[in-house]
Write a structure and sequence with these properties.
CATH superfamily of the largest domain: Winged helix-like DNA-binding domain superfamily/Winged helix DNA-binding domain
CATH class of the largest domain: Mainly Alpha
CATH architecture of the largest domain: Orthogonal Bundle
Distance between the termini: 82 Å
Structural class: alpha+beta
Strand order of the largest sheet: 1-4-2-3
Oligomer: single chain
Helix content: 40-55%
Number of helices: 7
Order of helices and strands: HHHHHEHHEEE
Strand content: 5-15%
């Protein structure tokens, strides 16, 4: 097999010197087939007429992959407009309206109590956990104003305590966690 590669290499170089580029191309393709695992007999019988090499300049910069050329008549799909994609303003307003009201305030209070009860003693919850539990993770941010208001009422009643990074908070401001027991300060 090495002799075959060696003789094919010599034939290819001789054909290139004689300016017989078709023969040089045939020898080069046979060498390539043999190196990829074909026997000398298989490489000699292979029909190489359908093999087309890449044309110079047909590759992108720094790659061995040919450039993609779309089929005739193809148009790229429109890019999404990030200012208008996602839930519409009307849908968000409907969710906010649906979340407001005394009935939902009681649902939020129940969710806060249930989540706190599922934690070990002294454990806390994030208000977004309550919103996610109420909305099944769909548009939970729209439920946050209702959750904050219900937690404020629970705080005023003394049913919950607020903290952030282990420090107690007297009122809700910035990020906070909700607990059923007051935080002990060191």
């Amino acid at each position: 097999m090495t002799e075959t590669l060696k003789t094919l290499q010599e034939k290819m170089e001789a054909a290139a010197l004689a300016l017989d580029f078709e023969e040089a191309k045939r020898c080069r393709d046979m060498i390539s087939l043999i190196r990829s695992g074909a026997t000398a007999k298989e490489a000699g019988q292979a029909d190489l007429s359908g093999l087309d090499r890449q044309q110079p300049g047909a590759m992108g910069l720094g790659t061995s992959q040919q450039r993609y050329s779309p089929p005739p008549g193809w148009k790229p799909p429109p890019k999404p407009d990030f200012m208008t994609s996602g839930p519409s303003r009307d849908r968000r307003q409907k969710i906010r309206a649906k979340m407001s009201g005394e009935k939902n305030d009681e649902r939020v209070r129940d969710a806060v109590r249930a989540l706190l009860a599922s934690r070990p003693a002294g454990g806390t919850i994030c208000p977004s956990e309550v919103a996610r539990a109420l909305t099944c993770n769909a548009l939970w941010r729209e439920a946050m104003p209702t959750v904050h208001a219900a937690i404020d009422r629970l705080l005023n009643e003394g049913a919950v305590y607020l903290s952030w990074k282990g420090q107690p908070l007297k009122e809700r401001s910035g990020p906070y966690r909700v607990g059923s027991q007051p935080v002990d300060t060191p």
